[in-house]
Specification:
Distance between the termini: 27 Å
GO biological process, one term: transcription antitermination
Strand content: under 5%
Family: Belongs to the NusB family.
Protein name: Transcription antitermination factor NusB
GO molecular function: RNA binding
Pfam family, one: NusB
Largest sheet: none
Length: 314
């Protein structure tokens, strides 16, 4: 579920928080990092489950309308294409998802169902929904494309949902773009035959990725002064104080990977941190960081300091 880039972002946030607070309690920060990463899975489950709850609310509305004493012909014979959406049905009938939500005591939408109603109403009012409901053709592919559009343009962009999640847990604000991307990725690859466990991927790809998160945090923090010395003198046109704090953290993490993670290719490290800089720092940060890292790589190569293992790592 988590990529190495996701892990690097979470470590970046932890390193930044430690340097800002000037805290020397690495054990505490490691626990926070583990909890923060684990909590991303809760957010994934919450966003996945809201679709089931939206479908459930839509079904309840249809049931109530049909029971009206003076129900209209349309209310008696409603268009049920939305509640019969095949992807929504897969989620609604997913017992593993239900069990995991219960095990983790995630019952947000039962307690705060007004947010489900708000999003459902936004869906009803969207052109995406109107076009979908008007189309008499129906296939799994059509149903999936509709959910992808609704999630991208109605759910993921909903400001009230954003505010609600912010109130629940502040760290989720940084995680939301990543988790939204994960949800969409899961939906894009969903098939009619997808089993329940398909929607419940592992948080880490393997134990190596889990270890990577803690090792990157530890080695960056414990070697912070040495890593800063590597940067000093490589920025002739910049005072140390003028370097954006996020850029400084990203540089230290990248240098740490150069020197302390022999299995990670240099090019991979550079590309990863340039992409993170584009998203999390200033518009010119990626150019600045690229220049510094290029200088350092050449210097390390000359000094034979890059002890990379494996094929094609350079």
């Amino acid at each position: 579920m988590l990529t190495r880039r996701h892990i690097r972002v979470k470590v970046m946030q932890s390193v930044y928080a430690m340097l800002q607070s000037q805290s020397g309690d690495l054990d505490k920060e490691e626990k926070f990092l583990n909890a923060s990463i684990a909590d991303m899975y809760n957010l994934y489950l919450i966003l996945l489950s809201i679709l089931s709850e939206i479908r459930k609310k839509a079904e309840e509305r249809i049931f109530i309308s049909r029971k009206k004493y003076l129900a209209t012909s349309e209310e008696k014979n409603p268009n049920v294409k939305f509640i019969n959406n095949r992807l929504l049905q897969l989620l609604a009938n997913n017992q593993l998802l239900k069990d995991e939500l219960e095990r983790r005591k995630i019952n947000f939408w039962e307690n705060d169902d007004e947010y489900v109603n708000i999003i459902l109403q936004d869906i009803y009012e969207s052109d995406i929904y109107k076009k979908y409901m008007a189309d008499k053709n129906s296939s799994f592919s059509d149903d999936k494309d509709f959910i992808l559009d609704i999630y991208s343009h109605v759910i993921a962009t909903n400001e009230k949902l954003y505010d609600y999640l912010e109130d629940k847990k502040l760290t989720w604000l940084d995680d939301l773009p990543l988790i939204n991307t994960m949800v969409l990725k899961v939906f894009k690859k969903t098939k009619p035959s997808s089993s329940d466990d398909y929607f419940m991927p592992k948080l880490y790809k393997d134990q190596e990725d889990k270890n990577f998160a803690l090792q990157l945090l530890r080695k960056t923090v414990l070697n912070e002064e040495k890593l800063q010395n590597e940067i000093d003198g490589k920025t002739p046109n910049w005072d140390t104080e003028r370097i954006a704090e996020i850029d400084s953290v990203l540089l230290k993490m990248a240098i740490c990977e150069f020197l302390h993670f022999p299995s990670i290719p240099v090019k991979v490290t550079i590309n990863e941190y340039l992409e993170i800089a584009k998203e999390y720092s200033t518009p010119k940060s990626s150019i600045f960081i690229n220049g510094i890292l290029d200088k350092l790589v050449k210097e390390y190569e000359d000094k034979k300091m890059l002890n990379k293992s494996g094929r094609g790592l350079m």
